[in-house]
Design brief:
GO terms for molecular function: UDP-glucose:hexose-1-phosphate uridylyltransferase activity; zinc ion binding. Belongs to the galactose-1-phosphate uridylyltransferase type 1 family. Its EC number is 2.7.7.12. Pathway: Carbohydrate metabolism; galactose metabolism. This protein is elongated. The chain has one helix and three strands. The protein has a three-stranded antiparallel beta sheet with strand order 1-3-2, covered by helices on one side. It has a single domain, classed as HIT family, subunit A. By secondary structure, it is α+β, with helices and mostly antiparallel strands.
Length: 87
């Protein structure tokens, strides 16, 4: 929980949320654009399903590809993430 603040510039409130990881392929050396079109279509279909499912419970859903140390990625293989929260 965030600490309370008397400063009018800061507002605190409780937030619920989750994070999901989507591996694009069993071949972890391939990035999304390197996959065959049918595999890319499958990933996009999964994104849509997740947005629809999570959008019923959370007001904010974000889908993105996460790769590389520069992006703060903790996994060496290309993958996507979905963040959802009530904020």
């Amino acid at each position: 929980d965030a600490p309370e603040s008397d400063n009018p510039l800061f507002k605190t409130q409780g937030v619920r949320g989750l994070s999901r990881v989507i591996c694009f392929s069993p071949d972890h050396s391939k990035t999304l654009p390197e996959l065959p079109v049918d595999r890319i279509r499958g990933v996009i279909d999964t994104w849509n399903e997740q947005i629809e499912e999570l959008g019923k419970e959370y007001v904010w859903v974000q889908v993105f590809e996460n790769k590389g140390e520069t992006m703060g990625c903790s996994q060496p293989h290309p993958h996507g993430q979905i963040w959802a929260n009530s904020f």
